Amino acid sequence: MDFHVNLTGRGDLSARIYRALLEAILDGRLRPGERLPPTRELAQRLQVSRTTVTDAYERLTADGFLVGRVGAGTFVTDQPVKPAARRAPRGQARPRRLWESVDGPSTDAVLPYDFQLGVPDGRLFPLETWRRLVAREWRGKSVHPARYADPAGHAGLRAAIARYVGVSRSVVAGAEDVLVTQGAQQALDVVGRVLLGPGDVVAVEEPGYSPARRLFQSLGAQVVGVPVDGEGLDVTAIPAAARLVYTTPSHQFPLGTPMSLARRTALLAWAARRDAVVIEDDYDSEFRFSDRPLQPLQSLDHSGRVVYVGSFSKIMLPLLRVGFLIAPPSLRSALRTAKQLADLQGDMVTQGALARFIEEGLLARHIRKATRAYAARHELITQTLREVDWLEVVASTAGLHVCARTSFDPTQVVARARASGVGVQALADFCAGEPQHGIVLGYGGIHVSQIPEGLRLLGAAR
């Protein structure tokens, strides 16, 4: 690649070139074995004499940083040089005070027995098939590398999603109602940008999905937690001033209980009275092990107040950042514009491959296979946890995690389990208000053979 040499500063030109190249070698920008431009070429680019560049090269060669190879050129020596730290200036710019109250992402290490939440088993995904679909998409005529695409997403994928959720979840939508996003998190961000102003009230479940809570806080909203019980979100506790309600009715996060039909009806009636919008996050709904699923809020909504959000990242692979939202026509234009302002467009190749993956029945086949595997893990974990006298398992019939309540603060148990190589989360991690006692275990990413020993170590951590 072209290497930039800054000729400002003290000393003759040859010394400045020497220092610039030396700093690049020491901080790792020029790596061992990397070829430097010929002296004539660099001299022309810098508008200096060839002798000036040659002197700098010869000095670096004498110091052992460069080596000349007859007929090949000049290279950085293969002898390893420990790169020096290279950082941007500290600066005086500061973020808005708002960002001081928004928690940053966690970077916990992977443990031997990792019951991490929200992670599917990549070993179940047909990766070779996916690679072929992506390669086929690159070869196809639908890729137009010289121009931007529709910010709403790949037309074929939007149609495939509308059909898929219509068949599998009874969601009422056409292709024009679908907006493809970079995961569900961007869908929430786009909706928040369109609907919320500074200080607007957003109601979220308590305990609940903390990334959604943090996102709405980052937009300047006043986020209020609403308690959840055995029937789901307590509609009577929603603040009257709430402009937006975020809920996970199919499989409440993190408790796992579904919202009852009575509560769904009450929530929709409340939204109509208060002129509010409901975001229905239907994560994990594909993985259902028993019981017939209840109607989504979106299909029960007759006044156009529900925005339905879904994601393929938890169904397929987290690195495939593809989600979607389905919105009423009154919001469609604004959401499309907000999406365009955020990132212009998504990855059309990935979206085109996903459209084929859905339409050729490969997604449905993958879900059936994965559901059988996850059902076995769910059964093993729930049966084992019920034998632990200090845990009360919260009943659930879907998803990739299980919650169990405790009569005491399990913080020390979680810490001791972690020291033994077992990764679980305290229920309090999902509470913004008064902490609730319990632990939450994911089973999407852990192999079934590791579960018994992991749970034994967890039980011993008490």
What are the main properties of this structure?
single chain, 462 residues, alpha/beta, Arc Repressor Mutant, subunit A, Aspartate Aminotransferase, domain 1, Aspartate Aminotransferase, domain 2, 3 domains, eight-stranded mixed β-sheet, four-stranded antiparallel β-sheet, 14 helices, 16 strands
Shape annotation: globular
Structural class: alpha/beta
The count of β-strands is 16
Radius of gyration: 28 Å
State the end-to-end distance.
57 Å
Task: Name the CATH architecture of the largest domain.
Answer: 3-Layer(aba) Sandwich
Secondary-structure element sequence? HHHEEEHHEHEHEEEHEHEEHHHEEHEEEH
The spatial strand order of the largest sheet comes to: 4-11-10-9-8-5-6-7
The CATH topology of the largest domain: Aspartate Aminotransferase, domain 2
Superfamily (CATH H level) name of the largest domain:
Type I PLP-dependent aspartate aminotransferase-like (Major domain)
Strand portion, in percent?
A: 5-15%
Number of domains: 3
Low-confidence stretches: none
Largest sheet entry: 8 strands, mixed
What does this structure look like?
- The protein has three domains: about 90 residues, Orthogonal Bundle (Arc Repressor Mutant, subunit A); about 100 residues, Aspartate Aminotransferase, domain 1; about 240 residues, Type I PLP-dependent aspartate aminotransferase-like (Major domain) (Aspartate Aminotransferase, domain 2), CATH 3.40.640.
- The protein has about 450 residues and is α/β, with parallel strands linked by helices.
- The protein is globular and about 85 Å long.
- Helices cover about 40% and strands about 15% of the residues.
- Helix 8 links the parallel strand 8 and strand 9.
